[in-house]
């Protein structure tokens, strides 16, 4: 378990995180599968309930650690998984615990070579992206959850890319605001925001596309990118990331 003392938390210790995932996967009879490398660090994914996916149930995609200076999401994802083994067995999940391990170790947004992964998901010339695309190829997705943080954040906020009229963001942010309030800035990262929600109805023009947009183009009907404020307490940020996953699955897919 994570220490309750935020000064003790080794949130940038990738090897410790992998050790925790390996122990969890062993207990849950799951496999932590390496699919790429960044410098000397393996990058992993986990898939659950393959047999249900083979019968047509779409995958629930969750990733963390795309930006290395955002250390709460990988731990929130781990703590969520540890608390929801039954749910993982009942539905097909595709989980990427840390997509940029060298950034996490170095506490940098980009990886060890200065590459911002979230501006390169449409660039298969990047080896990590090429390997990631091979893993997701051919998989029908129910939803994509992308876990992030913002050092300018004054609370939590959410990008919702959702073709449906049923907006999820307000309900999700109501759940997460019990732990960390919403970021109520009217403009966030150059975009109009309302009570922490940034809705995308149209794909923005970008040469370097982020993960959420590539997942949308891949066919995910809903992608949610959650941002917690990285200057807040690590323990609260981990808790709010875990709550975001729970709340998203509940409101989007009815899963508890
Ligand atoms: Zn980020």
Structure write-up:
- This protein has a single domain (6-253), classed as Aminopeptidase (3-Layer(aba) Sandwich).
- The protein has 256 residues and is α/β, with parallel strands linked by helices.
- The mean pLDDT is 95.
- The chain is built from 9 helices and 10 strands.
- The protein is 35% helix and 21% strand.
- The strands form 2 sheets. It has an 8-stranded mixed sheet, with helices on both faces. Strands 7-8 form a two-stranded antiparallel sheet.
- The longest helix has 20 residues, at 234-253.
- It is globular and about 45 Å long.
- It binds zinc ion.
- Zinc ion (ZN) is lined by residues 66-67, 70, 148.
Report the sheet with the most strands, covering strand number, pairing sense and barrel closure. Answer: 8 strands, mixed
- Rg over CA atoms: 17 Å
Return the CATH architecture.
Answer: 3-Layer(aba) Sandwich
Q: Give the bound compounds.
A: zinc ion
- Examine the coordinates and then state which fold CATH places here, giving the name of the CATH topology: Aminopeptidase
Total of DSSP H or I helical runs spanning 4+ residues: 9
Order of helices and strands: HEEHEHHEHHEEHEEEHEH
What is the averaged pLDDT score?
Answer: 95
Q: Would you count the extended β strands for me?
A: 10
The strand line-up of the biggest sheet is 1-2-4-3-5-10-6-9
Number of domains: 1
Unreliable stretches covering 5 or more consecutive residues: none
Which structural class do the helices and strands define?
Answer: alpha/beta
> Which shape, going by the Cα principal axes?
globular
Query: Distance between the terminal alpha carbons, to the nearest Å?
Result: 22 Å
CATH superfamily: Zn peptidases
CATH class: Alpha Beta
- Residue share in helices? 25-40%
Strand content: 15-25%
């Amino acid at each position: 378990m994570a220490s309750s003392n935020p000064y003790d938390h080794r949130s940038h210790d990738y090897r410790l995180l992998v050790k925790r995932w390996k122990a969890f996967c062993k207990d849950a009879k799951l496999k932590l599968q390496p699919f790429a490398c960044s410098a000397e660090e393996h990058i992993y994914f986990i898939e659950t309930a393959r047999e249900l996916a083979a019968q047509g149930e779409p995958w629930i995609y969750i990733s963390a650690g795309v930006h290395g200076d955002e250390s709460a999401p990988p731990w929130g994802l781990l703590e969520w998984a540890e608390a929801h083994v039954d749910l993982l067995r009942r539905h097909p999940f595709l989980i990427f615990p840390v997509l940029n391990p060298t950034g996490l170790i170095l506490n940098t947004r980009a990886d060890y070579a200065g590459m911002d992964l979230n501006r390169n998901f449409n660039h298969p010339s990047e080896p990590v992206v090429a390997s990631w695309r091979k893993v997701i190829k051919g998989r029908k997705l129910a939803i994509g959850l992308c876990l992030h943080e913002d050092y300018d954040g004054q609370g939590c906020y959410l990008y919702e890319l959702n073709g449906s009229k049923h907006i999820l963001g307000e309900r999700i942010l109501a759940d997460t605001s019990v732990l960390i309030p919403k970021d109520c800035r009217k403009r966030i990262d150059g975009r109009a925001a309302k009570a922490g929600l940034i809705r995308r109805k149209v794909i923005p023009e970008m040469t370097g596309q982020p993960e959420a947009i590539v997942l949308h183009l891949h066919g995910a009907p809903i992608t949610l990118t959650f941002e917690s404020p990285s200057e807040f307490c690590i323990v609260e940020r981990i808790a709010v990331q875990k709550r975001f996953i729970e709340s998203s699955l509940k409101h989007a897919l009815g899963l508890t």
